[in-house]
């Protein structure tokens, strides 16, 4: 069996502190779980039960996956297995590590707790791959302390000292500030926003907005870049990544990759910067105009109908010839004049004291 073969049973972010022992003999049946544990783990590698978190059988791969409590033990066993892999009973197995060196558990603190998880994931997606959903960290009483945990893989970067691209330990999403940290995080400078040293030993005069060494951030007049995706074409408040739905952010290979997202004005623009934002706005305006026209026609129809009913009622009264007029005559009270059917000429007056 190819020891470098990737299997479906291994998640994309790897499996921390885990070694896979894959059976390599084609002429022999694989050993049972008990034989493997007693002969390989306890006998050959001198591993104690308390040092192992889990021993899982993988029949499809003809392998056993051994997960240790501590990373140090994982590294120690891996080194020992490489030294004796061609001698003794271990020669029947190919040993590979399922852990990934670039795997990190990132703890993010946003000073504004209302910042959405997908917005933080979109920011992390600029530097890391396979960013997981957020896990809210709580104190001993059960209250959320404002920190969120994400699992992710550092992205490779040839320009970096150790070959990985690291997200800044201090960052902003619009007006909202945040910090992050994780195991094996390099020293970070708050002045130049660079890794490798701290503020006390920083002698560089470097702008944290544009990276220029000729001026500081307060003197920078370059166009500001988006805190989410780094583009200078828009700011964070207009960033398409900020308006993604949770399902979109959770899908794909990492934050900001693939999946469906909510339509925004920025999504309507093509690569040249001119496209259908105006066309869509025009269509919406046309629909609104038609709707207003229909409402106006309906209102005018109701008014016309009401007028016809009033005119019809007045005509009916005139046909009967009855007219009622009331007035108050000063000092005498109410005077009522009634006219009887037209043509009779009879008028009756009533006075009330």
UniProtKB/TrEMBL annotation:
CCHC-type domain ranges (all copies): 226-240
Sequence segments annotated as region (Disordered): 246-353
Keywords: Metal-binding, Zinc, Zinc-finger
SUPFAM superfamilies hit by this protein: Retrovirus zinc finger-like domains
InterPro entries: RBD_ZCCHC3_1st, RBD_ZCCHC3_2nd, ZCCHC3, Znf_CCHC, Znf_CCHC_sf
GO biological process per UniProt: activation of innate immune response
Ranges of compositional bias, category Low complexity: 331-347
GO molecular function, one term: RNA binding
Amino acid composition bias (Basic and acidic residues), ranges on this chain: 258-307, 314-328
UniProt entry tagged with the keyword Metal-binding: yes
Domain of life of the organism encoding this protein: Eukaryota
Full protein name: CCHC-type domain-containing protein
Source organism of the structure: Oncorhynchus mykiss
